[in-house]
C-alpha cells in the first residue's frame, strides 16, 4: 500500500510572489506529495508562476484574478502516468486520473 501526504489548502489568492513563496516553503516543511490548491485567483497566463523545483506536474483550472481557480501540484518524486484530466472552464474543479508506480506496484488515484 502507498502512503502519500496530500495537502488541500484554500489559499484565498496566490498571485502575490511573497505569498506564493511563503506557501511553498510551508508546504515543503509538510512534505506534501500532492498539493490541492483552491481559490488561487490566477489567470491562465499566470499558472506557470506555480512552477517550483519540487513540483514537476501542475494542473490548473483558472477563471479570473478575483475569484475561483484550482490547481493540483504533484511532487517530482512521485512516479505517475496521467490517464485523464477533466477541467471546469469556470475554475471550480479539476479531476485527474493517474497510475502511480512505486516499488513494482501500481495504484490508481
From TrEMBL:
Report keywords, A-Z: DNA damage, DNA repair, Hydrolase, Magnesium, Manganese, Metal-binding
Query: What SUPFAM superfamilies would the database entry show?
Result: DNase I-like
Gene Ontology terms, MF aspect: DNA-(apurinic or apyrimidinic site) endonuclease activity; double-stranded DNA 3'-5' DNA exonuclease activity; metal ion binding; phosphoric diester hydrolase activity
Range of residues in the leader sequence: none
Q: What cofactor does this one take?
A: Mg(2+); Mn(2+)
- Where does the chain bind Mg(2+)? 10, 39
The record's listing under Pfam families reads: Exo_endo_phos
> Record's InterPro entries?
AP_endonuc_1 (IPR004808), Endo/exonu/phosph_ase_sf (IPR036691), Endo/exonuclease/phosphatase (IPR005135)
Tell me a GO biological process for this protein.
base-excision repair
The record's catalysed reaction(s) read:
Exonucleolytic cleavage in the 3'- to 5'-direction to yield nucleoside 5'-phosphates
Domain Endonuclease/exonuclease/phosphatase, first and last residues per copy: 8-95
Q: Which family does it belong to?
A: Belongs to the DNA repair enzymes AP/ExoA family.
Q: What is this protein called?
A: exodeoxyribonuclease III
Q: Which organism is it from?
A: Amphiprion ocellaris (Clown anemonefish)
Amino acid at each position: 500500500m502507498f502512503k502519500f501526504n496530500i495537502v488541500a489548502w484554500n489559499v484565498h489568492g496566490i498571485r502575490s510572489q511573497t505569498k506564493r513563496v511563503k506557501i511553498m516553503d510551508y508546504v515543503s516543511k509538510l512534505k506534501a506529495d500532492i498539493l490541492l490548491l483552491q481559490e488561487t485567483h490566477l489567470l491562465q497566463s499566470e499558472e506557470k508562476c506555480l512552477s517550483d523545483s519540487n513540483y514537476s506536474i501542475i494542473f490548473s483550472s483558472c477563471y479570473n484574478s478575483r475569484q475561483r481557480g484550482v490547481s493540483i501540484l504533484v511532487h517530482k518524486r512521485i512516479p505517475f502516468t496521467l490517464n485523464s484530466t477533466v477541467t471546469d472552464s469556470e475554475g471550480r474543479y479539476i479531476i485527474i486520473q493517474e497510475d502511480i508506480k512505486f516499488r513494482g506496484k501500481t495504484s490508481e488515484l
